[in-house]
What we know:
Layout: H1 10-23, H2 27-41, H3 46-50
Amino acid sequence: MPSLTVKIPPSLDKKLRSAALKRREKLSTLARRALEREVAAGAPDFAQLAANYKGMFRGPRDLSQREGYGR
């Protein structure tokens, strides 16, 4: 099986080791499952990324309905 070396901050290392100990599994098994879940989740959709900005901008919802445009 190929191996991968990843640098992580000490705080994440502490959390991973604690979680692995609580679950009684190897650190590599826990890390592998977490990576598999992240890859399976895919890229976040635009609506999720833009949700924090909802209502910050003014203007018509549908730009094709602007007055004097295309009519």
